[in-house]
Amino acid sequence: MSSIGKVELSAVGKFYGPIEALHDIELTVEAGEYCCLLGPSGCGKSTAVRMISGHEEVTTGDILLDGRNITDAPPAKRKTALMFQSYALFPHLSCLDNVAFSLKVAGVPKKSRRSQAMELLELVHMDEYAEALPDQLSGGQQQRVALARALITKPSVILLDEPLSALDPFLRIQMRKELKKIQKELDMTFIHVTHSQEEAFALADKVVVMTKGTIQQIASPREVFESPNTPFVAGFIGGHNIFSADFSLLNEGKFAVDMGGITPGRQCRYPELGKSGNYGFSVRADRIHLDAENSEDMDMTLPATIALAEYQGSHVVVHCDAGTVEKIQIHIPDDRFFKLGLEPGQEVVLGWACRDMNIFPPA
Hints:
- The protein folds into 2 domains: about 220 residues, 3-Layer(aba) Sandwich (Rossmann fold); about 120 residues, CATH 2.40.50.100.
- It is elongated, with a radius of gyration of 25 Å.
- The protein has a 6-stranded mixed sheet, with helices on both faces. A 5-stranded antiparallel sheet has the order 13-12-11-14-20.
- By secondary structure, the chain is an alpha+beta fold.
- It is built from 9 helices and 20 strands.
- The longest helix has 18 residues.
- Helix 2 crosses helix 3.
């Protein structure tokens, strides 16, 4: 792991006039980590990276890079490089001269700067296009050049603002593989803004889920998916159904769970709750099963009617109407779905195990 590139945001806030864009952000990105800021449009994730880069002023709080306070430092003095969504390549310069441009401004001799630029074009597999102009390149090729240009200043941190959003789905997958490979080879800190859960999970060591200028959860991709800590996180990342129920403490951490008259076949054990109350929880769509009333492994059962089935290749998303509960999604492997011969309007029983209920911490 790299020893440089640690980024710390301490009580960082941002106002645009009376509008609060970021509220009291506390975040540490360790050196060498690939961190993704994940959230819907307008949640403040792009504002956060632009503040780290120095392209937005900080209203409150401090930003540190390797222990050095860079809150008020100009962009050129921060040892960060921001890779724009639009790539922002100079249309009249070759790929080689685009990459070398910042060294030219810094007064580095032509031979040296072009040599360094060529090394980086080789790193991103664009050396054969060194003399090509940007409009002769595809979107993915332009992105590789933009990444090489960001790397040439030898920054401690690379900041990427929605770098893959303009690419078609196939190229997006290819480029995220390249980004991860380059980040690991260079052992650099990458902070990457995205609204795509799939993209964040594929790339990140650390995922920061944001909404309305606040951080909802900071965790590994696996932890975010398996244990979302708020209803917003569970809903935004997808693949989860959100419920609430009355949990009545019986003894030794055992609870009776009441979802409005729906009773479990067995008691559920949640010692971490500590007391009775109404708690929200989520259940993964692939952990809810059909016709489970005869299964000894299912603790909660729920009658429902199939409303819609969406074929997704390896699995089918089945939307079920359970009456008083919002529509429930379940993921069924494609071979099992077609074997069962399920149809809209069919009555089924849904079920899940206590262990698959992710309880949200009380607010």
